[in-house]
Design goal:
Length: 324
C-alpha cells in the first residue's frame, strides 16, 4: 500500500508568506457523503466471498447500524434540545458528552466480530480505491484543482493533514490515492486484526488520554489539530469540515464548512452560537483569524475572494493577523 508523503524540504519562501498547515475532515467534506455504509458494504462483500467464509452477515451489520441509531436517539432525548443550547459551553457539553455513546457503539462492533479476520489495511485500502473509481464514493467538485493551487501558489507548499473519526484510515487513503503524494498525514481510526477499531496514531494515548482508544468526538479532532499545530512547518491557517464533530476546530481556527445546501447541522449550530457563516461568495476579502464561511464545493472556494493565495505571495499580508 502506498505511503502518505512526508513533508518535502522547504523551498525559497516569498516575502510575506510563512509556511503553514491546512486540516481537512474526510467524510462529507472531501467526499460528498459519509462513507461508513461503503465500508460496511465492502466487508459484507468480502464475507460472502470464499476467502471471507461465504456467509451473509447483512443482518449483523444492520444490527450495528440500528444499535447506533438507538443509542444516538436515547442520548439526544436526554440532552437539551438544539434551541436550548445557545452558548458554546452548552454545545460543547452536548458534543463531548456523546463519547460514551460512540464508544458503546464501537464495543458492539467489536463484540459482533464483523471485522474479525479481515486484512483490514490492504482490503479497505483497495475498497477505497474501487469506490472512488466506480463513484460509489464521490469527491467534491474542485478538490483536485484546490490541491494543485496549494502546490503552485504557495512556496513552500503548506502541509495538508486529514483528520477524521472514520473507522478506517486505510479506506481514506484508498479513496485519496491520486493525491497521497501531496498529503502529509491521514489521522483516523483503523480496523485492527482482532476486529477492534482504535486510533491509528502512535501518539493517540497522549492525545486521547488513558480512558479512550478511538477518535470519536469533536474534542478529539481539536486535540489532534492542536497537536499538529505544535509541529513544523507552521501555524494552522484553514480548517475544512462539514459536521458538528468539526465545530470546535472551526471555532478555534476558522475556515470553511462544506455543505451542499448551506443548511446542514454544522452551519445551523455555528449560526445558533453567534457565527454569521456567510457563503464564500459573500466574502469580500480573504478569511482572517477564525472567520468561517460555507461553500458547496472546493471550486466555489477557489473562485471566491475568501481564498486568495496569490495575495499572500505578494507580501501584503500582515502576518500577525492570521489573514488567509
Amino acid at each position: 500500500m502506498p505511503q502518505v508523503a512526508t513533508d518535502s524540504p522547504s523551498r525559497i519562501l516569498p516575502q510575506g508568506c510563512t509556511p503553514f498547515q491546512v486540516i481537512l475532515d474526510f467524510d462529507g467534506t472531501i467526499t460528498e457523503r459519509d462513507t461508513i455504509d461503503n465500508i460496511g458494504r465492502a466487508v459484507l462483500e468480502w464475507r460472502r466471498s470464499p476467502e471471507g467464509g461465504g456467509t451473509d452477515v447483512t443482518a449483523e451489520w444492520q444490527r450495528i447500524v440500528d444499535g447506533y441509531i438507538r443509542g444516538l436517539t436515547a442520548y439526544d432525548d436526554s440532552q437539551p434540545s438544539e434551541e436550548q443550547r445557545t452558548t458554546v459551553g452548552q454545545e460543547l457539553a452536548y458534543l463531548r458528552g456523546r463519547r460514551a455513546m460512540e464508544e458503546a457503539s464501537l464495543r458492539r462492533v467489536r463484540e459482533s466480530h464483523f471485522f474479525t479476520g479481515l486484512a483490514a489495511q490492504e482490503q479497505l485500502y483497495e475498497a477505497g480505491q474501487r469506490d472512488r473509481e466506480t463513484k460509489a464514493t464521490t469527491i467534491r467538485q474542485g478538490f483536485s484543482e484546490w490541491i494543485k493551487t496549494l502546490k503552485e501558489d504557495f512556496d513552500p507548499a503548506p502541509s495538508i493533514h486529514i483528520v477524521s473519526v472514520n473507522f478506517s484510515a486505510s479506506y481514506i487513503k484508498g479513496v485519496l490515492q491520486p493525491w497521497l503524494q501531496d498529503i502529509s498525514s491521514v489521522i483516523a481510526n483503523e480496523v485492527q486484526s482482532d476486529g477492534n477499531i482504535s486510533a491509528a496514531l502512535d501518539c493517540s494515548a497522549q492525545i486521547l488520554g488513558k480512558d479512550s482508544s478511538a477518535f470519536t468526538v469533536s474534542e478529539d479532532k481539536l486535540a489532534i489539530t492542536k497537536h499538529l499545530s505544535t509541529k513544523p512547518p507552521g501555524p494552522i491557517r484553514y480548517y475544512f469540515g462539514d459536521s458538528t464533530t468539526d465545530l470546535e476546530c472551526l471555532i478555534e481556527y476558522g475556515g470553511y464548512v462544506l455543505d451542499s445546501e448551506g443548511g446542514g447541522s454544522l452551519v445551523r449550530a455555528l449560526r445558533r452560537l453567534g457565527h454569521r457563516v456567510p457563503h464564500t461568495t459573500e466574502c469580500t476579502s480573504t478569511l482572517a483569524g477564525n472567520q468561517i464561511c460555507w461553500a458547496r464545493n472546493f471550486l466555489e472556494i477557489l473562485q471566491s475572494r475568501s481564498w486568495a493565495p496569490k495575495h499572500l505571495q505578494a507580501g501584503t499580508v500582515n502576518q500577525t493577523n492570521s489573514s488567509v
